[in-house]
Amino acid sequence: xxxxxxxxxxxxxxxxxxxxxxxxxxxxxxxxxxxxxxxxxxxxxxxxxxxxxxxxxxxxxxxxxxxxxxxxxxxxxxxxxxxxxxxxxxxxxxxxxxxxxxxxxxxxxxxxxxxxxxxxxxxxxxxxxxxxxxxxxxxxxxxxxxxxxxxxxxxxxxxxxxxxxxxxxxxxxxxxxxxxxxxxxxxxxxxxxxxxxxxxxxxxxxxxxxxxxxxxxxxxxxxxxxxxxxxxxxxxxxxxxxxxxxxxxxxxxxxxxxxxxxxxxxxxxxxxxxxxxxxxxxxxxxxxxxxxxxxxxxxxxxxxxxxxxxxxxxxxxxxxxxxxxxxxxxxxxxxxxxxxxxxxxxxxxxxxxxxxxxxxxxxxxxxxxxxxxxxxxxxxxxxxxxxxxxxxxxxxxxxxxxxxxxxxxxxxx
Length: 413
Prior knowledge:
Blueprint: H1 2-32, E1 36-52, E2 55-70, H2 94-122, E3 125-126, E4 139-140, H3 161-165, E5 172-176, E6 179-180, H4 184-192, E7 200-206, E8 209-215, E9 218-222, E10 233-237, E11 240-241, E12 252-253, H5 260-280, H6 282-293, H7 306-318, H8 323-339, H9 348-367, H10 382-405
Antiparallel strand pairs: 1-2, 3-12, 4-11, 5-6, 5-7, 7-8, 9-10
Protein name: RIP metalloprotease RseP
Subcellular location: Membrane
GO cellular component, one term: membrane
């Protein structure tokens, strides 16, 4: 039941966000005097509708997004009635059209920012004072799983060498056989290179006091650290996991209403960088998505669709991590806001780019004394638009299929 509730919550949050996106277009267009004839939530057959003034509002049967109809978005539109020519969108100054077309993304950014601000006060934001990389504070496991499987300890599993030797949770490993250990990654690398079955000296720090003990590593099968897809080989392990936060250092920090503002700005900056990096990697992740569909392991770094986001929301709520629903809401809104501003038709950013291209071209022609060439002919751009729609549709289908056949899972189910 919790899983289904999480799925519904994320799906509904996405629907509401997209509906507000279209409301942003509609309200700014109306504020400037443009004529808006339709505003609908969803697509397909109409469930119900009503008219207020010159605009018809309604709900469609397929709850995937929404739309609003602004009269005369391009000079080629034939939806301008006699007497409304002056209200056609394309006749308005470029700055007004820019505001209207960017209003949808602004709504997404506003939703993300408000959610971040509220999260900073009530849920907490990642602690900026956590060292990066983390020192090798560890948790001691009860047993060794020879094959590396993710499961509970079972009778017959070898006991953890670290536990037998006396290591405790939150101990900070300083060195192994005299080799300094700066972080958990260095600890893992050093431990794997130890001779199996031969005692090793581990220097550690516990409650500010340094000590040493002898640990006899166990031999197990693990995949190489630098090649997760490579064949497994025999290595040594000592029976710890990490990295753990230093004792007394919280993972998240909550803020007051005023202090939450700079925290929101900082998180938004990190989100912008992460979104840029994620979008830059999309082309190289397409083969990984295809591999996931055809039987390969799903890369957790591959893009997800609305289906995948909804499933992650269900999984998070089922496992009691409701905070992930908030982070999903924030990330999705920010990503959609950025994506819609890409200078490609039929995205909002494509219309904005054309409007400013027309303005710059008119200015340049005036500067050199030539006649203004007028508006861009959108019909000549339709082949490019169709290519963008085809590629975008294919990518959406690919991610949705991967999310159905081989979804990303963050918890063992």
